[in-house]
Amino acid sequence: MYFAAHWAMLLALLISIAAAGFACIEAWSGQDKTASWLERAHLITVLLLILASTMLLRALIWHDFSLAYVAKFTDTSLPLLYTIAAFWAGQEGSLLFWALTMGLAVVAFLYSKSYKELSPRTRLYFWMFYLPIQAFFLLLLTGMSNPFVALATPPADGQGLNPLLRNIGMALHPPLLFFGYAGFTIPACLALAFSLSGERKSWVNTAHNWTLFSWAFLTSGILLGGWWAYMELGWGGYWAWDPVENASLIPWFSATALLHTALLERRFGTLPRTNVFLACLTLLLCLFATYLVRSGVVESLHAFGAGSVGRPLILAIAFGMALSLVVVAAMPRGNAPALPQMGSRQGLMTVSVWLFIALGGIVLLGTIWPVISQLWEPKPMGMTKGFYNTICLPLFTGLAMLLAVAPWFGWRGSLEKPKMAAIPVAVWIGVLGVGLWLGIKPVLAVAGVGAAAAVAVSSVLLAFSIPKAVRSRSFWSSHGSHLGFACIVLGVAVSGPFQKSAEAPLSPGQSISLGGYEFTYTRMRQFKTSEMSVDEAIVQVVKDGKVVGELTPQSRSYRNFDHPNSEVSVIFSLGDELYATIHDVKGELVSPLKVTINPMVNWVWIGSVIICLFPLLALRSRREKTAKALEK
Amino acid sequence: MRTITVNNEFPMRKMVVAMMGVGVLAIFLTSFAMGVDVPTPKEHVSATSEDSEMMSSVPPLMAKLKDNPNDKDALLQLAHLFNRAEDWQKAEPFWSKVVALDPSNIGARYHHGFALAQLNRFPEAVSVYEAILKAKPEESTAHYYLGMINKHGLKKPDVAKKHFKQALALKPDDKELLAEIEKELAAMK
Fold it and tell me: Domain limits at A574?
């Protein structure tokens, strides 16, 4: 039966190749007749992808272990949610999911007014750039990364999903990332298509909603990954600068830079070439993220092993980069307006874009450093957390300060309300001064808190001083997301450096004292489900004689997995979040119970929700787009 | 057939189109070379596989190392986990670190040498086993491994013979070792 799914993908590949070939021939000869045929070809390939995906999903839900992918990632005891999530648990399913999402996104774009407004020539070029990308994914899926490999002797039960992935965060983190990755295909193809066709209007308007959506999905995927690491890995942190974590962060930097440069082009027509390059770069970095994760090129705590897709991916990235550079280099210089001076909001926004690019470059370089340094080092080592923190955290703090002061500058120059603008700066200096006076270290953390406070104060002052602006969605979209960023900066600045942790082997009745809290291990509770057996330590937390709450960290032994897994327990707080894990359990002895106090860590998650949702307020409806066009 | 106006403002249009054409052709040729069959089924791994265990144990151990890069226990556990998964590329750096932290751990040295040999880094493996012999000249197993590396890896049968004989001389009563070495020596004749 799975031959049908394989053949569906093969047929989709053939149609994509044929359609892409026709698009190239048409573009070469200056015809534009095939666009409608290309659209139909795409619809057929998406239908075929839906068919293949449905068959994989059916195999997962029905526990058909004759399929190697199903046997590897599920078992009969796995709850339905995680059985469905197993679709993207492995490389093969992930790539199928990415291809499907990308195909569906392009179908949605195809039926949008934005697409209908494109000139036939731009449409043709759009398909000429998009269809080969789709064909490339189908090539991987029909060959090196085929999810429909059948087992000659199917096992009675599967291996089951890795316990660490049995978490709602991990069930949602990959699809959100893939929505983001897939979504960036449309801005990149539009940027290239508009460049070649010379269509008068700017592609950044057409791609606006897609860029925003994709950015929001990518951001939420990254932050949800951080939350998963915090709640599931049990080491008390959320970001370890691991190569796989960095992999998705690198395109985020270029995507965020694109959001800001696109705004400048929409408003003032500046930076057209930069935008084309950033759109292409973001898509290529999404592919590079997959290369980092799947090729085994760098060691990582959750790299997914050396895979066969590494070489084709790197070739595709190199090809895409060469193509983007040719297009950008050949773009007519035209008469794009020059950027105003540095002392303007445009100038400061450009500085922030450079900071994003610098951060992306540093993280990229740090991540692939073991690959580069193996040229002269016999034992190449990855960059440590210290490297990233030392370089990136000051840049993030600088970015936050830019967000606090930039809105007070006029778009074309000069400080508009100097007294008001001075307040956020004074807040920052004040917080820093108080921190230094109290001898709080590290100073960078104090500077981060000051910068977060400055952004918050700046946003409130803006709302009061420009009451008209508060009624606009664009105000909430930009300043709301900046506030979200400030919350994240605040959470990171406090939760990392001021975290307290202690661990000890404990028997019932014994305690650990930490940061004024008394953690008493009272008893052990044991129970079993069809999926696992659980040892749960009941830990009572008392502060100043008052019971704060009860922590229930668990050690879970999943069916098919010999090694027990720690399940984190937390007592939520916007101040000190209490966090506990247990590792080994011998009778009633836990060895050890690890307790951690994470101050203000939840501001990272609050900021995450804000930063993902508020930018969506800038999504434009058809009516708004038409009105904007008429204004111009 | 309607002809569109060729965009004169984009001087390298044909070059870009040609590049895309080459890309499409490359995809077509690769798909052609791969054929139409579903890839060969992989060997099924048992439900309680080492891989699964390793996957769930690695992240907490790596997190421990992030906190303390010299956590000997974590390093040792990781090295063993990757050993069991026969992922020598990943196991080797951990063994190397364990040895650096605890040079007296002869077992770790053996594992390190074995991982290096599995990675075909024979001269480095030889150095590791020679270091064991320097510290403990009576280690017959080190001679055995040196014999194996010289025979199979470095293709130096004479040196291999010398080590096999030294191993036998040090432990003439070890029947298992004797059988192994005799088998190797017989194959060399």
Answer: 500-600
Query: Is A547 exposed, middle or buried (CB count within 10 Å of its CB: 0-12, 13-18, 19+)?
Result: exposed
Residues 17-36 of A with CB under 8 A from B: 17, 20-21, 23-25, 27-28, 30-33
- Whether pLDDT at A617 is above 50: yes
**Which 252-311 residues of chain A touch chain B by CB within 8 A?**
299, 301-302
* A341 in a structural domain: no
Chain B closest-CA separation from residue A143 CA (Å)? 7
Q: Which element (helix H / strand E) includes A592?
A: strand A589-599
Mutate to test the interface with A, among B2, B38, B53 (most CBs of A within 10 A): B38
Q: Do A195 and B10 touch (CB under 8 A)?
A: yes
- The answer, yes or no, to whether ipTM is higher than 0.90 is no
Same domain, A137 and A246: no
Q: Do both A185 and A147 map to the same domain?
A: no
Residue A111 sits in the same domain as residue A129:
yes
Is residue A346 one of the residues assigned to a domain?
Answer: no
Based on the fold, state whether residues A467 and A390 are members of the same structural domain: yes
When pLDDT is averaged across residues A90-106 and rounded to a whole number, the result is 94
Q: How many whole angstroms separate alpha carbon A422 and alpha carbon A415?
A: 10
Low-confidence spans in chain B with pLDDT less than 50 = 1-7, 43-53
Both A509 and A473 in one domain: the answer is no
Q: Specify whether A311 is located in the same domain as A270.
A: yes
Take residue A467 and report the two structure tokens written for it.
């009451």
Residues A191-200 have a mean pLDDT of 88
Sign for the CA dihedral angle at B85, B88, B90, B93 comes to positive
Boundary residue ending a domain (A132, A162, A192): A162
Are the Cβ atoms of B27 and A28 closer than 8 angstroms?
no
CB pairs < 8 Å spanning A and B: 186
Among A residues 499-558, those touching chain B with beta carbons less than 8 Å apart? 558
Residues A280 and A155 grouped into a single domain: no
The arithmetic mean of pLDDT across residues A65-78, rounded, is 89
Q: Look up residue A571 and give its DSSP letter.
A: E
Question: Would residue A308 count as lying in a domain?
Answer: yes
Say how many domains are in chain A: 4
Based on the fold, state whether residues A232 and A325 are members of the same structural domain: yes
Confidence class for position A626, pLDDT limits 50, 70, 90: low
What secondary structure does DSSP assign to A37-87, as a single string?
Answer: HHHHHHHHHHHHHHHHHHHHHHHHHTT-TTBHHHHHH--TTS-HHHHHHGG
